[in-house]
Amino acid sequence: MLKNLFNYSIGKNVKIGKTIINCNKVYIGNNVHIASKNSIVCNEFSIGENSSIHSGNVIQGRANFCLGTNSRIINNHHFDLWHNIQIGNNTWVAGKNSQFWTHGSIHTKLNNKDLSIIIKNDIYIGSACLFAPGVVIESQNLVGLGSVVTKKFLENNTIIGGNPANVVKQDIDWRTNW
Questions:
Q1: How many CA atoms lie within 13 A of 55 on its CB side?
Q2: What is the helix, strand, coil percentage profile of the chain, to 5?
Q3: Contact 138/154 with Cβ under 8 angstroms?
Q4: What is the spatial distance between Cα 37 and Cα 106, in angstroms, rounded to a whole number?
Q5: Contact, 88 vs 69, CB < 8 A?
Q6: With 41 labelled, which of 58, 100, 113, 168 sits at a CA distance of 20 to 30 A?
Q7: By C-alpha distance, which of 8, 90, 89 is closest to 45?
Q8: Long-range contacts of range 57-62, CB-CB < 8 Å, 24 or more positions apart?
Q9: Dihedral through CA 119, CA 124, CA 129, CA 135, nearest 10?
Q10: Long-range CB pairs of 71-80, under 8 A, 24+ apart, other chains included
């Protein structure tokens, strides 16, 4: 129904539960699972192959949302799309209750700065993390539970944590040394 009625591009072996998807443009790759009880309302929504969005997530606003291939969003996260949010390949927004905000500063009112959030490839984000507008996380990093991320982290192979978040370990590949 979504393909024919709304002209959404939906790949093969896609499972979509009882969820709201109301976007101007939608691309869903092959082997994707979107569980029930999600609300996805945005301009453009894109999710790569072999990725999943579990239940209770809110992806809402006027901008674009992109989730890469082999990536996961687990439960009850909030994504504010005043500006774009891009989450890379092999990346997990794990646990529950993380929030990603792309507005709320003086730059929102003046509309003079891109406040998009970019989470690159091979990232693990623990539960209950908060992301401020304009945050960038470079590839191959871990963001610890409850972190409040307020700035760009352009290093690789680090563990980021705290309030406000800082690099707490460097030169560590969390995928093998966790």
A1: 5
A2: 5, 45, 50
A3: yes
A4: 33
A5: no
A6: 113
A7: 8
A8: 59/85, 61/102
A9: -20
A10: none
Q: How far apart are CA 88 and CA 47, in angstroms?
A: 10
Tens digits of residue pLDDT in 137-149: 999 999 999 999 9
Under 8 Å between Cβ of 100 and 80: yes
Q: Which two tokens stand for residue 9?
A: 């591009």
Instruction: Report residue 27 as tokens.
Output: 């691309």
The two three-digit tokens of residue 129, written as one number: 């993390």
CB atoms within 10 A of CB 112: 8
Under DSSP, the state recorded for 32 is -
Cα distance between residue 80 and residue 37, in whole Å:
17
pLDDT tens string 26-69: 999 999 999 999 999 999 999 999 999 999 999 999 999 999 99
Q: In angstroms, rounded to a whole number, what is the distance separating the alpha carbons of residues 175 and 103?
A: 32
> Rounded CA gap, 97 and 146, in Å?
9
Q: What dihedral angle (degrees, nearest 10) is formed by the CA atoms of 45, 51, 56, 58?
A: -20
